[in-house]
Every structure is written in C-alpha cells, then in structure tokens.
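[09:14] KT: can someone run the structure on this one? pasting the chain below
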Amino acid sequence: MGDLKSYLYSLTSKRVAVAGAGISNTPLINLLLDAGMDITICDKRSRSELGESVVINYEKNGAKLRLGENYLAGLNEDVIFRTPGLMPSNPALSQAVSKGAALTSEMEVFFDLCPCKIIAVTGSDGKTTTTSIIAKLLENDGKTVHLGGNIGTPLLNKTDEIKPDDIAVVELSSFQLITMHKSPDIAVVTNLSPNHLDIHSDLNEYIDAKSNIFMYQKQSDRVVFNLDNDVTRNYAQDAPAGEVLFFSRNNKVENGVYCRDGMIYESRDNVDTEIMRSDDILLPGVHNIENYLAAFAAVSGIVSYDSMRKTAKTFTGVEHRIELVRELNGVKYYNDSIASSPSRAIAALKAFTEKEDSFIPKNRRHMILIAGGKDKGIEFDELGTEINARVKVLVLTGAAKNQIHDAVVSAVNHCSSDAGKALEIFMFDDFEDAVQTASGLAVSGDIVLLSPACTSFDRFKNFEERGKLYKDIVNRLV
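[09:31] RB: done, structure tokens below
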C-alpha cells in the first residue's frame, strides 16, 4: 500500500494512455491531467460523439487524443489504463504489453493504494444489490463507508479522503477482475451462471476471471460463497482465505448464514443464532433473501444483529432493480432494466409469483412483461418456459425480440393451461410503443414489469438510460 501522491509522481517520467473515456475512466483522466501527466486519451467515439466541449477541455489541459475506429492503433505508451469493457486479449493491448507496456486499470491501482479494509462483491446476478446492502448495513452500524466500483462510482481519485478505519465496499465485474492480482479483505461471490459470453472467449474464462476476487487473499481474510450454486461451492476448495463462509437458502451451513422455515440464522461451528424472519425483508423475491444472506455473512462480527434487522426492514433497494416506479389505476409499474440476462429476468418474475402456483390459469395471472434488447449469446429456452408459466401478456421489443418469441412459443408449456389458449404476445420496434401497449392492456391488480433479459446496447447507451426512459414514459401515463 502506498499513497496516491507518490503513485502519481512515479508516472511523471512515463507516457500514459487511457484506453476508454467513459464513466469509469473520466475521474482518472482528470486526476492524471491535474497532476500534469503526459497522457493520450484513446476512445472509439468521434469528437462529436465524445462531445466537442469535453474534447476541447482535454486538449486545453495537455492531453493528446486518438479517436475513432483506429483508436488503439500505434499504442506504445509505457503505462496503459484500460476501461473494464476493453478485454486484455485485445490484439493492440497484447502487442503493447509484449513490447513492455504495463497494463492496469483504475480499480487495480485503487486496490494497491486503498488505506482501509475492502469488501468486494461479484457474481452473475445480485452483486449490485448485495454490494448496496453491505454498504447500508455498515452505515447503519455507524461505519464510514466508501461505495464504488462497477456500481458506478470510481474511487481512485478519492483515495486521499479515505481513512484507515473506514471501509470500502466495491462491486467488481468479470471485466475488472480478469487482470486483478490483488484480492479484497472480504470477498463475496453471489452466484455464477453463463453471462457475457458475447465478450468472454468462453465460460471458463468468465469463471476464472471471477475467481480473482478471492485467489490472492491471505490467511487473515474472509470469503463468502453461495452453497446452492455449483460453481461457487466448488470455488471453496481453492480459496486461500483463512475464513471460508457459506450462505444458503436451501441448506443448513456449518459456518455462515442460512434460511430455514422462514428464519434466517447465523451459524458458527454449527452453533445457530437467530437473526430475523425472512418475511420481514422489505425487498421482494427469494433472490433478495439470498442477497441478504450473502451480505449478513460478509459483515458477520462487524455489524450488530440490530443493524441487520433495521436495514432489512427499511432498505428500499437500488434504482433499476425491481424498482417500483408508480401505481396508477391499481396497476403497479416496476423498472428492472438491470436484468440484462435471462436468469435476471427469471428471478424478477419469480419475485412476484413465487408464492403462487406457477401454473395457475392464465386468465388469473397479473404479470405483464416487457422484454427484449441485445442478446448476450445466452439461450432463452428456460426464460421461455418461465414466461409461459408466470406471465399474462408478453410485450417484446428490441433486436432479440424474435429470439425470445421463438423460445416462448416452442416451450413445451406454451399452450398447457387456460384450455389450450396460448400466451398473448405483442411485438414492437419502438420502445415507447411497447410500454404504452403494456399499459393499455393492464387492469387494476396487474403488474407491468420491464425486465428485458437482454443488454440495452441495441438502442441505448446503458441499462440506466433504458430504465430512465421507461420511468419517464410510465410517469407520463394518464
């Protein structure tokens, strides 16, 4: 561990490139420019796409810019900061490293310089909510918390503000972890399922990248795994941390946190202590019970049971994650734009229907689902089955709408209930048309849920932009 000033000084004699000028790297760019660094900003976007005022400001402060399709051509700087979405296997990056360039990232440097304990969370699903719950647990217990990482807030530029007794809580994606060579004091892996296969070379690369969150831990560290997930359960045999805890919604654990008969317990050497009833958790869905189990295990011995109960009963969740937008004429509208994979959309559907028989007649169902976007190379077969089992009306939009449609109509349960009547499906090119139609079909008691099962990149900059548009349309409904 060093300090930020010394690290920046170590770069003064080197040429630095920042590959990617998006949200995660903008504070880094400003930090390097303020320190008088010789930097080149590389971005695939044009001057106009990046913003002329932004470009002029960078140039005024001494930065050189390499923009457009060939933004990585001639990359020969001494130190290269990559944006998380730019994989280290990129030929231009690989070639630069082979010639001696040091490849790093904002998060890797933060891990090297952070003066306080770090709790980090990763997983295919639930990592943002679990990270936010952990931060809220610590705050409610009186701790000073710095929340960031993949959750949207870079932390490197805030390093000098962090005190040794504070706690940094960070969400880490596989794109951030793939080049990490340092692990947090407390690591949490919520679950692992196929994801981002449109970017990772294969599933094994994805799984290996995630394992870096605990692979470099010390004996004094803690790691929390999901016992109910095959991949994360098997991770445990390779974990170097001295304290390995599990969480489970289905099984008793010897050391960790689990749920049985509606009661959440902490177990240490098979000695159980009641924490709270799972029904008292404000956030809907069994997946949020799992998020709390993981969070409770992460802060075990750090946060009091009173703070755990207070947080679970009052925390309303994170924007774009099964977020209640409004209730209009007895219809509740939920924004789950974060659901960029089939498994996330399935979890959202189950959150509202898990206490019912999933094969109730369709004319008694209350769920209208809006789905679609850009696919991630993941099959929609399981989603198709769940939609048929739980949804009243399906409204599809976006590039993958036909793939989802085909998965739904080819599912074995497509005409299995309501006297053989098939699920109603509507398809639209325009996103607003899809939302307006879903609203027009809803009656009092219904739920209209945006849970796309796809990324937003067919028409939106990110899932936040998609979610904000959905909320804007819903809030304009009369």
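[09:33] KT: thanks! The first strand starts at residue 15 and ends at 19.
[09:34] RB: yep, looked fine to me
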